[in-house]
Here is the input.
Amino acid sequence: MSDRKRVFSGIQPTGNTHLGNYLGAVRNWAARQAEKINTFCVVDLHSLTVPQDPEQLRHETRSMAALLLACGIDPAQSTLFIQSHVTAHAEGCWLLNCVTPLGWLQRMTQFKDKSARQESVLTGLLDYPVLMAGDILFYDADEVPVGEDQKQHVELTRDIAQRFNALYEQEFFVIPQPIIPEVGARVMGLDDPTVKMSKSLADKRGHAVRMLDTPDEILYSFKRAVTDSGREIAFSNDPDKAGVNNLLGIYRAITGQSNAEVEADFANARGYGDLKVRVAEVVIETLRPIQARHRELMDDPAELDRILAHGAAQARAVAQPKVDEMKRIMGLVLPGAADGR
Ligand code: AMP
Ligand code: TRP
Here is the structure.
């Protein structure tokens, strides 16, 4: 039992959760639960790094927790909680801030991208990867399953952990590995297959398949998906074929088939129109039971609260002692310790 790896991952509650989040991350968390010791977190503090409407944030946080359960995260096998319910995250983030050089944060590509698009950049946005590092490190996680876009943040987490261990001359933090799926790690926008499917663009009709979209909306988005002027339905690295490649990639990730099997499935397809409708169908059927379960959970707030309170207690029992020990290592006086240690 003790050789089971510890897994931690998180997802922001805000914005429209989409098929990329599911195929790149959440589905893989659910699939490997039995083999690992798992902690999954709805990272509401991360969402505050850009301005939010308070009521909407509250609603979306609960909805995201329900969605993770609906996608198969099983509270009997995994700890599932809301980040702000465990105060060790915010507390420990401060401690990590005090060992993290500013230059490391200024170099993060996500910070550079996001801050370039905003007039006023909040301090929290720069500090975002340090909060994320704490999420991972306070649970001694070995593995962090994420989509491709989060790889740099996990690498920064490793750097912060190594720096702390070196400064205080002990193997206090486990050095985590990013786990990027072989398929589904980068689902592209349906309206523009040169940009990744993203929450911030998901309000635009036709860009993303949102997890709670109706079958009609899903079909609409696929029917309008950008392809090319050719006819060939095959995987390809040709930038002109990125649209078809993305559609086939989604189909492959959902069906679990090999490239050759996927291509064989479409050998008799009548053009791209046929391809789009058939990919839409497998997506609709995959999302149907998830959406039904999500509705049930949202209709039973007491049950959702019970699950989240249990998860928070489990998470707190791991993270708070770790942060307390960090405080001691860093020279803070722990309350009630007569000798100051
Ligand atoms: P976020 O929406 O930023 O909280 O991301 C949640 C998870 O989804 C992270 O592990 C991301 O790496 C992953 N993810 C986000 N967008 C995509 C995408 N277009 N394709 C695959 N994975 C993604
Ligand atoms: N930054 C991640 C994202 O946007 C979410 C996240 C926060 C996370 N804390 C984490 C992911 C810890 C993995 C581990 O996708």
